[in-house]
Amino acid sequence: MNTSFRPPVRTVADLLRRLGDVPADRVRFDPVPGTATVADLLRDENRRCELLDDTLVEKPMGVRESFLALVLAEMLNAHIRGRNLGILTGADGTYELVSGLVRLPDLAFVSWDRLPGRRLPDEPVANVAPDLAVEILSARNTPAEMARKRAEYFAAGVRVVWEIDPRARAARVYTSGTDFTELTAADTLDGGAVLPGVVVPLANLFAELDRHG
After folding, report:
1. Exposed site from 10, 51, 72, 117, fewest CB < 10 Å?
2. Separation between Cα atoms, residue 96 and residue 121, nearest integer Å
């Protein structure tokens, strides 16, 4: 096992625990953990990975999660674009929160004030923290992984994190790594100070999962 980690990682179990108890099949060994860079992340075969502790970790994918993210994006983007508040990116939007730490929120809102020159970034990995990060939970996301991710988001300057669970049909609105409001399908997501005026009834969002031909 690579020994460049601080503190040292001596076993695969140590590595997985450090990364948030993620399943072993989500950790890339090309390049070897502890040696990956942003350039490695941008290789085509790694574009669904995040970069943490110089290690590429695959982000779980799923049709239901992707579908729900797009439905929510439609709801948010009409408000964001209509008022020219900033940009909304999807699951391929890469954000380097600090040097060497790249996350891919399923949706992210970035206000113009956070973007250099108040323009859409040209570089493939934006060196900026979103105002709002949205994570659509997969069955393969672990509690430890999400706790680490939230801590990183808020340390970098993210203001609010929404975690949406399609299986439980519930959501959590985090205002810090540990402080959250629990919402059920009977409740409403509110944009608050980050996206004033945004109101998303969760019943309407989750109802899309039941739509059929």
Report:
1. 117
2. 12
What size, in residues, is the chain? 213
Give the CA-trace dihedral at 197, 198, 201, 204, to 10 degrees. 130
CATH number corresponding to 63-210? 3.90.1570.10
Map residue 94 onto helix, strand or coil.
strand
Q: What angle do CA 112, 74, 126 make, to 5 degrees?
A: 35
18 - beta bridge partners?
A: none
CA dist 127 → 82, 102, 191 (Å): 25, 9, 24
**Residue pLDDT tens, the chain, 213 long:** 444 666 678 899 999 999 999 999 999 999 999 999 999 999 999 989 999 999 999 999 899 999 999 999 999 999 999 999 999 999 999 999 999 999 999 999 999 999 999 999 999 999 999 999 999 999 999 999 999 999 999 999 999 999 999 999 999 999 999 999 999 999 999 999 999 999 999 999 999 999 999
Place of tokens 């290789």: 43
110 φ/ψ angles, rounded to the nearest 5 degrees? -125, 120
